[in-house]
Amino acid sequence: MKTxxxxxxxxxxxxxxVIQIFDEEYKYIxxxxxxxxxxxxxxxFSTDFDSKYVLVISDFTTGDIVDILPSRKINxxxxxxxxxxxxxxxxxxxxxxxxxxxxxxxxxxxSKIPHVIDLFHVIQDLSRAVNKIRxxxxxxxxDGSACKIFxxxxxxxxxxxxxxxxxxxxxxxxKHTTSGVEKDYFHWMQDCIGQSxxxxxxxxxxxxxxxxxxxxxxEEGSRHLHRIITLLKADGNKELMTVASTYEKxxxxxxxxxxxxxxxFRYSTGIAECINNxxxxxxxISYGCVNYTRFRNRIxxxxxxxxxxxxxx
Length: 313
Description:
- The longest helix has 22 residues, at 119-140.
- Strands 3-2-1-4-5 form a 5-stranded mixed beta sheet, with helices on both faces.
- It folds into 2 domains: 4-118 and 267-304, 2-Layer Sandwich (Nucleotidyltransferase, domain 5), CATH 3.30.420.10; 120-258.
- With 313 residues, it is of the alpha/beta class.
- It contains 14 helices and 7 strands.
- Helix 6 packs across helix 8 (185-193).
């Protein structure tokens, strides 16, 4: 992926001239047809632009970028999908994160199709709450204490699915220099989690959420999520109650993702996240982007360049 500056040097032109040529040649790149499985995901664009986030619309099946909107604001999405009203019937699944605006758009334009909430964002929401609780507990401990040091140095272990942590890691030993106490990582984790009943409860909720793979039907997924919400509310902790409220607001969408029996796999915004990583690379090597139209055109051209039937009109 070449920057305008690099292209300018290779062709003995100024950067501003290369940008001028690009803008003259590519005034507008047409969007692709709305896909059967449509993913919506936002990406941070520029604080100098009207909206901090742009919205990337992608095709789950092909991985193609369908279009990029200048904002994820409801009025922008509403105007866009209204302009493509005749194509809305092509969309059979809408896959998003838990941003409330996406639920609004689903209710307005896609109410007859399943709205699928990506599990990555569902678990991420709970993980952040658990990490906040871990941090609060850690900060309440005495400076230099074994658990405080271990919790700070190995915070990722407390957010990971226990069954997926390499046994070699859990069997490693850690010796606290001051006290001389030495244990394996697994038992240090148990000691740290036991420092607070709230932390213990939050950790158990996260581990229970990780068991989603055991369930494949809508009914099973519904029971699982009901159980998680009940557990989150049990201790009245503010962080966990907030997650429970978010899950309740997005209940159907989350269960739709847990339900994989009818299609043998789960839809997710994973493809959109992968696309967003490429977009972030462009923003990084360009030292930021402030011109939305040019940004959109470059992304759409790059994403389609090596595709069959490549076209820019």
